[in-house]
Recover the amino acids of this structure.
DNA sequence: TTCGAAAATGTAAGCGCTTACATTTTTATT
DNA sequence: AATAAAAATGTAAGCGCTTACATTTTCGAA
């Protein structure tokens, strides 16, 4: 005698199974799951019990297909290899999660072409919205996103033309403020270690910030000695050495971020230079790394966590059909120990 | 006079649109996209031209629903906030991408309950396979995964009982080798700064490794002074100070990872201790951070990138129905400058 | 030239869910 | 108690794709 009871053992239960078990229609089950207030308390309980009992969980592909939404947000960051973006993205993810969304992260290796590819991949995979870093990119991309109706938030910068939604900070002003402090310390020959300014708007803005300060102080902005390289401790080290091998040595080296600055610091120590006695060095970002290293780093503090959180909120707002506001977060200067008065000439 | 030509302008084209444009059935278009060798060269061209012409790209939700696969792999890591996992995960992602898969990353904040939740979230969202860190977790989770037929690879450790697929390294042996080197330098009072050993199998194995070495050297393993804390530079700093405030001070402090070691190093410098003259300090992981800090860190090098890559390959193999082999990658000791001979007693 | 097997293509049935619309039940009003 | 409006529930049509199976075409051997 075979038992012919409807047993779905071993099979993943579906909405229909729940409906059958609860003695209601699939529509009602769906409502219990998505809009519980459109359903009687009683049926809600019956259905939820069935859900628990069967261990049901919805199939997101089917839901996405039927509803036209995936509840997935994409983020494309230049790199996951160092901590520059980690804290902000972590906060972004936490906030999304609170809103029932999942984060999909991809990285572009700081390459515009790869970023475009990733944007397409993520949208095609159904990302409901996107977080991008910086504002500089092919305008077609913005069209593509607009046409597909994908809310997008630009971060780690604030968009100068205010065209797009952004949650970031003003790299130029932030670096300018730091540069003013450097100048106030009497430095007149300034070096700068930066990421590629052609491809990286944050890097470019930061360099511009230094020039702004120089100009305002009556110096010739074109005297700024810029050394471009990639973001890594090793590269920062090398760039610093290259700067120091010039006939006219800068007395202050302003770095595009903390990773570079730590590299510079390491090189300076290796060269037996006293910091900040012989040379002043500054960073940008204030990642944890900044507080380590031979000498605690003077840098610009960026409210990464808050930025991630606000970016997530902006996106949730946009997904709900409202128009979120861009926000520009304030940065502050962390005075620590790598910036000091310029050494006396010829000393 | 209205133009009544079939124009899908403004609409995202579907498979059916492509089929209509190419004058073939949807099945043929699907074949062109997924199994191009089951189709004539001629039709392939016609169809692909139509695809380009319409700017078609497949709807992944629909594809996933129909095919039962999402081509998405999930990874759950304890944290994204520091670089411990970054390099390995980056390599993992790159390898997946080469195989047409997307990576979904979630973090568990080192909490077992959150990890379980994330595992369920990711599988429910259709992850075809999973990467997890370490092997210690509720056995039910493994059942859940097995029942749902989700290939899973355990990383950053190698599973002692060989039950599960793993691509990692032997934390215990690696740390033991380093500890032997420390002992060979004459240290007899050894301190250890570790992550929570109850919840973190890697941390526990590393501590055990030290004890193994002590035992083998004829020391009492229970004499090891263990200070548990969280992974951060700040916490490492504090733990080191606490270790130094004991009446019997260790002459060597072995840290559970480089982040802690850098913190310890910072504290030691702040306490005006000479490294390695007064105190030896070791790390684990060999992340870029290790090469910064007052003194280049003696640590265990872990082949993170290779691990990520192999883990991805193992998962792809498993998805294709074959049975991949676990692999245990070798680690090496990076002798740098923070380990030296034990100071003379009373010196 | 004819015929059968192999290759190419087409047909159509879902995959599991949401949701517009139709139907039934409840509630409020008189 | 009768009735209309509101609330709850049910019915069923897709969402865009894959794939088993049916049909047509191609091609080589006899």
């Amino acid at each position: 005698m075979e038992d012919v009871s409807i047993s779905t053992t071993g099979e993943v239960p579906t909405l229909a199974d729940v409906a059958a078990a609860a003695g209601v229609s699939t529509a009602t089950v769906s409502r219990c799951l998505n809009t519980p207030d459109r359903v009687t308390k009683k049926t809600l309980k019956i259905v939820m019990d069935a859900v628990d009992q069967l261990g049901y969980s919805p199939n997101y592909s089917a839901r996405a297909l039927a509803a036209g939404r995936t509840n997935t947000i994409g983020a494309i960051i230049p790199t996951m290899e160092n901590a520059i973006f980690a804290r902000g993205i972590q906060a972004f993810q936490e906030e999304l999660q609170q809103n029932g969304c999942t984060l999909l992260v991809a990285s572009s290796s700081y390459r515009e072409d790869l970023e475009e590819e990733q944007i397409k991949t993520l949208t095609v995979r159904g990302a409901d919205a996107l977080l991008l870093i910086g504002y500089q990119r092919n305008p077609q991309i913005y069209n593509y996103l607009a046409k597909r109706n994908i809310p997008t938030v630009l971060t780690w910068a604030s968009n100068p033309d205010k065209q797009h939604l952004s949650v970031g900070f003003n790299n130029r002003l932030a670096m300018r403020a730091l540069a003013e402090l450097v100048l106030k310390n009497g430095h007149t020959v300034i070096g700068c270690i930066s990421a590629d300014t052609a491809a990286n708007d944050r890097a470019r803005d930061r360099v511009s910030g230094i020039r702004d300060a120089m100009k305002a102080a009556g110096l010739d902005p074109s005297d700024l000695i810029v050394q471009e390289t990639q973001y890594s401790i090793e590269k920062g080290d090398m760039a610093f050495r290259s700067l120091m091998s010039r006939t006219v040595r800068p007395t202050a080296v302003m770095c595009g971020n903390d990773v570079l600055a730590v590299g510079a610091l390491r090189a300076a120590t290796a060269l037996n230079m006293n910091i900040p006695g012989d040379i002043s060095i500054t960073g940008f970002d204030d990642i944890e790394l900044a507080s380590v290293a031979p000498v605690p780093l003077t840098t610009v503090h960026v409210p990464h966590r808050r930025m991630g959180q606000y970016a997530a909120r902006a996106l949730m707002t946009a997904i709900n059909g409202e128009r979120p506001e861009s926000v520009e977060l304030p940065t502050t200067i962390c005075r620590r120990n790598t910036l000091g008065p310029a050494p006396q000439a010829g000393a």
